[in-house]
UniProtKB/TrEMBL annotation:
<feature type="coiled-coil region">
    <location>
        <begin position="32"/>
        <end position="66"/>
    </location>
</feature>
<protein>
    <recommendedName>
        <fullName>Splicing factor Cactin</fullName>
    </recommendedName>
</protein>
<comment type="similarity">
    <text>Belongs to the CACTIN family.</text>
</comment>
<dbReference type="Pfam" id="PF09732">
    <property type="entry name" value="CactinC_cactus"/>
</dbReference>
<dbReference type="InterPro" id="IPR018816">
    <property type="entry name" value="Cactin_central"/>
</dbReference>
<dbReference type="InterPro" id="IPR019134">
    <property type="entry name" value="Cactin_C"/>
</dbReference>
<dbReference type="Pfam" id="PF10312">
    <property type="entry name" value="Cactin_mid"/>
</dbReference>
<feature type="domain" description="Splicing factor Cactin C-terminal">
    <location>
        <begin position="373"/>
        <end position="497"/>
    </location>
</feature>
<keyword id="KW-0175">Coiled coil</keyword>
<feature type="domain" description="Splicing factor cactin central">
    <location>
        <begin position="74"/>
        <end position="255"/>
    </location>
</feature>
<dbReference type="GO" id="GO:0005737">
    <property type="term" value="C:cytoplasm"/>
</dbReference>
<dbReference type="GO" id="GO:0045292">
    <property type="term" value="P:mRNA cis splicing, via spliceosome"/>
</dbReference>
<dbReference type="GO" id="GO:0005681">
    <property type="term" value="C:spliceosomal complex"/>
</dbReference>
Amino acid sequence: MAERNNLFLDDKSTELFIWKKQLKQKGLEHISAEQLETITKQNIEKNKLEREKLEQQRLKGEKEKNIFKLIKAVEQHDQLTKEEASFIYNQSLLRAKVRINENRAKPIDILIYHVEDHNENLDIELYEPLAYLKKLLAQDLEELLTDIHDYIDKDIQQSIHNFNERYWHDIQIIVKDELKKHLSNNEDRSDGVHSAVMPDILEILKNKTTRQLEELEQSINERIADGKNIDISYWESLLSQLKISLARSRIQDRHQLLLEKKFKKINNEQLSISKDQETESFEDLEDKCSHSYDEAHYSPTLMNIDKFDFEIQEQYIDEIDDTNMLQQQRQSIMKSGSIKTDMENNWQDFISKFESDNDTTIGIVPIDVEYIWSDKYQPRKPRFSNRVHTGYEWNQYNRTHYDKNSPPPKTAQGYKFNIFYPNLIDKTTTPSYDIMACEDNKDFLIIKFHAGPPYEDIAFKIVNKEWNQSNKNGFRCQFQNNIFQLWFNFSKWKYRR
């Protein structure tokens, strides 16, 4: 074993190594070997204890770090759950608001926005809940119960919103009572109450406030709990009818509070509007006007033209010259009978660029017509500039029977429609076109353009051929700069024997 550990064949490798320079530096060079061994063992034990202490501290730190991560993960999960519940809840409110604004509100929507915290930013009519629920059919009441259950069945909803548990509990009691009346087809029927006893119960609960009904409920509960010499079934039936009456009373009180709050809000708004619209007396206005004139003056002091440079004086237009120029412009306009606006100029430029040697005009309306303001929305035909593209078809048949000196007859190879709609009332609606058959001649079609008021529909007769609707072959259908363009060419067919 010793030979196996003695890799370098050193006789002193198993002896205790003494670092004499270190001992001399520490002043321990004169101690014996036994004392040095004792000191060495003490240092080893001290280092071992220190390592164990550091290891415990490390494990403790990791444990605290893991606990902190776990707490943070739980908090993050709770926050995400809370945000999800809040999102679902707000979405239900948003759906209710949309349905109310679109006049297709469900009963649950009316009841949701009957809660005080939600009706401030929505201008809706405050329905009286009892009268509203009484008008519902049995099917609507069953659907309402399901909607209420889905709405209030949120675990975290009560903590993140001002959730009124008592309000929805009372609504459920009233809805169930109304549903029982519909199902039994007897409005005076109540579970467990004999018809002979019912008038007495209604008389007991009649004309009582919410406070009185709550006190009566407490008294009946105490009497039932005592259970001595009483008719348990009678008092339980009275208690069930009392809960219905108490729910109706609380809902009615809440409705009255909401009405008072809404009336107060309306009165405050009317008062603020009336204060803003208060008119000042004539004397106050006159004093204010005089003060403003004395303080700031209404117009700057007129400066003499001679004080300016000669270059500026040359650009100055005298009042008489300006009046003469304006009069000449008016006379020229009256003679011409039209005023060309920027739209007219753009239309003219477009028409000039639109000209082509291979195109033939199929119909055009004069463009120098200006409608007066009172006729702006009168029905009218739109202005247009259309072209039919003609040319030779050098197919195999024509190449055989014709040449360049005696070419074949020109045929229609496509059309370019340009309709001008500068004064559309509805700018969001794009003009469109329809294709209709020509009854008197099957070789032609009728293409009708429609854009909406004030422009009437306009139609043209075109050749009945298949369109090539590829952009590479010149097809265009767009509405830009008040001009609707429809350009297309016909598909070319190869001649076969």
